[in-house]
Design a protein that fits this description.
Layout lengths: L14 H9 L6 H33 L17 H19 L3 E2 L2 H9 L7 E3 L5 E20 L2 E19 L2 H6 L14 E10 L11 E3 L2 H38 L3 E2 L2 E2 L2 H6 L1 H42 L1 E4 L1 H28 L4 E2 H16 L8 H9 L1 E3 L12 E3 L1 E3 L4 E4 L2 H13 L6
Helix pairs in contact: 1-9, 2-3, 2-9, 2-12, 3-9, 6-8, 9-10, 9-11
Amino acid sequence: MASYQDREAYIPYRQAELIELCLEDGHLNNEEKQKFKDFCSLLSAFYHFKFQAYLEHLKNNYAPFNPDTNLKSNKITKEDLPKMETKLIEDFKLVLERANYKPISQAALKDAFKNRSVIELKTKVDFDDFDQMVCYRRGDFKQTIEYKKFFRKKTKQIEVLDRVVLLIKFKDEEYFRKQDTDGGLLKFVPGKMYVYFYRNVPQYDLELLFPNIKISMTWKDRLKLIIPAFGAAIPVILKALPKLALLIGAISFLIFGSTSILGIEVSEENVRNFMPVLTALLSLVVVLGGYAFKQYSKYKSKLIEFRKKVTDTLFFKNQANNASVFYSLINAAEEEECKEIILVYYHLLTSKTPLTASELDDRIETWMDDKFKVKIDFDIKGPINNLKQTRGKVVYPYNNEADCPEISLLKQDERGNCHILSLDESKLLIDYIWDNIFHYT
């Protein structure tokens, strides 16, 4: 069983397509095809029911942290909140991992922030604002973008993350008061938890997803503003320097009536002659001011372009927010687990020789490459454990239920070979589980 760093466990095809491909593979006769379809339908229904329980847990624990709700509860106390928060984060990560998402650490996010966007602006995300921060991704691909630099069009290849999920819980109001932050300017509610779900996010644009992002000039922009202005000022200042003392003296003459300052005699004629100096200095101010305004206008244009990019990312790439994210993730996790189980079950069902977990893993990866031209790093442990934990009784009409032992859909022998029940037995076992989910009488 090989492990691949450049592959993902995610299966990028719908469950229905996967089932059809198994049926078209040529290893099942017509009777077996129908039984296999029935088994897959029962399995999907059973896992849909199982994941509904996860969804209810997520919704219940998220309720006091949801910024979108105005519902009140008399049963949730302050003492309950830390436990609910911990359980929510645990369940949230579990669902993401079952949907074959991979975590992005805070260190990895900071590294991604260092890579400049095509729009060069200084951005900062303060992680100290968060009590909780969970970020996961799934799938990636390369994309070539076009941009302008020095009036020329250039291309650049970037890495794009297919799906990104971000959960943030902000610290309470007291923390932001200590930071001298005006509560009316905040784009979020302190103490609440925000959940975001995005698609097709460039890796270097991950900071755009954070609501507390701060934007400012880069050092390059600042130098562009300061150095040319300083360079333009030097010759004017040098030219005016001999007359600056005269200017000071003239001002002193007008205010105090003094005729001497710094050892320089000042007369009324001298006062009249300081006008060219004043004109030169005013010209300097106008030139520098105009240049500074031009550079600042360029910065403002970049800022507008950057904010437009933020808006486009948040609007066009957003899939869901807050509680609605849970529905999308539960559906994705349910689909991924069913696809994995179906692949394991089908290949054990059609194999002419016993297979270990490692051999089964390699066989599925090769089959996916041959059939779909997709290279995946199949996670064999998950579906093997799920099949083992799917336990029930195989009760035929002529059997007494009490006499039937409880068994699993899959078992492993002493050599590690995997064995599954036949199609008929598998259907009966899941049917038994269904019949015994609820006991009202």
